[in-house]
Amino acid sequence: MKKIIIGGILSAIVIIIMGMLFGAASSEMYKMSPKTLWKPMGGNWFTEMIILDLVTGFILAGGYSLVKKCVPGQKLQKGLCYGLLVFVVGPFLGLTMTYLTMAVRTKLIAVWALNGFVNYILSGLIFAFIDEKIS
């Protein structure tokens, strides 16, 4: 449980920081998109995003603890493989559907894909590192 809590929190921190960096880098792309695509950002959206990122971190860390023995590789390779697997079955498939069905700029989808890739690779590496270092 300790590994899941620590891994989940560290993963959430990575996801939050990367989200801010990629969001800042792509802010002009949002402005060029049709306004009808985006939900108004009112209320406590930032707090809700932090909570969602924490929940995501805990789910990913718990998932790693469940499947780590089935993931190929040794040590950090396991984390890399896990992060790639999560990216492919999560954001990659979802963003492919977004590309095919919505009027979202291709560059923006590419930024989201890169952000997801970085998030899940780094998270996987965090989980593998923590799994190795904490007993």
Descriptive report:
The chain has one domain (2-133). It is 79% helix and 0% strand. It has five helices and no strands. It has helices at 2-25, 27-32, 45-67, 76-101, 106-133. Helix 4 (76-101) runs antiparallel to helix 5. The protein is globular, with a radius of gyration of 16 Å.
Main traits of this protein?
0% strand, globular, 135 residues, mainly alpha
The tally of strands reads 0
- Unreliable stretches covering 5 or more consecutive residues: none
- End-to-end separation in angstroms reads 10 Å
DSSP helix fraction: over 70%
Q: Compute the number of helices.
A: 5
Overall number of domains: 1
Question: What is the averaged pLDDT score?
Answer: 90
Query: What is the H/E order?
Result: HHHHH
Q: Tell me the major beta sheet.
A: none
Structural class: mainly alpha
How much of the residues is beta strand, in percent? under 5%
